[in-house]
């Protein structure tokens, strides 16, 4: 399984350690390299990193896509990638999915129609209704 991470902040110090174990390769944009190199704790993950420049030349190699960007950017990225031929099996997304509920619903509808799997990172543990979900 090959993964691609969009986002150099939490994408690298949060998602990279989380997906490293099940990814054969992790694709990162070359523009993140300086940030990656500035974080000593990330050095242990370097062996699986493939630095790319052009997403259009890389997208067909990706099974899992992790997006750690602002909602507006995330929405734009998703729409752009869904127009390209790819083999993405799962999108890992930040919350909210888009900048408005309407735009989020539109994206979810596209996922449903195209039968695309997705996950949205959210911790329910600290909400006052987490017990209802657990039950």
Brief overview:
The chain is 35% helix and 19% strand.
Report on this model:
The protein is 35% helix and 19% strand. The longest helix is centred in the last third of the chain and has 14 residues. It starts with a strand and ends with a helix. The chain is of the alpha/beta class and 135 residues long. It has 5 helices and 6 strands.
Strand order of the largest sheet: 3-2-1-4-5-6
Write down the Rg. 16 Å
Total beta-strand segments: 6
How many helices? The count is 5
- Characterize the biggest β-sheet: 6 strands, parallel
Key attributes of the depicted protein:
single chain; globular; alpha/beta; 6-stranded parallel sheet
Task: Break the fold down into its secondary structure elements and pairings.
Layout: E1 2-6, H1 10-19, E2 25-29, H2 33-38, E3 49-52, E4 64-67, H3 71-82, E5 90-93, H4 101-114, E6 117-120, H5 130-134
Parallel strand pairs: 1-2, 1-4, 2-3, 4-5, 5-6
């Amino acid at each position: 399984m090959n993964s691609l991470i969009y986002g150099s902040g939490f994408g690298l110090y949060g998602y990279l350690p989380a997906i490293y174990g099940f990814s054969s390769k992790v694709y990162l944009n070359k523009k993140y390299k300086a940030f990656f190199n500035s974080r000593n704790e990330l050095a242990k993950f370097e062996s699986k990193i493939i630095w790319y420049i052009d997403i259009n030349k890389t997208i067909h190699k990706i099974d899992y896509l992790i997006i750690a960007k602002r909602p507006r950017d995330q929405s734009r990225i998703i729409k752009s990638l869904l127009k390209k031929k790819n083999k993405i099996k799962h999108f890992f997304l930040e919350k909210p999915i888009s900048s408005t509920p309407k735009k989020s619903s539109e994206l979810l509808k596209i996922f449903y129609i195209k039968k695309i799997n997705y996950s949205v990172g959210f911790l329910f543990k600290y909400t006052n209704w987490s017990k209802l979900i657990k039950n």
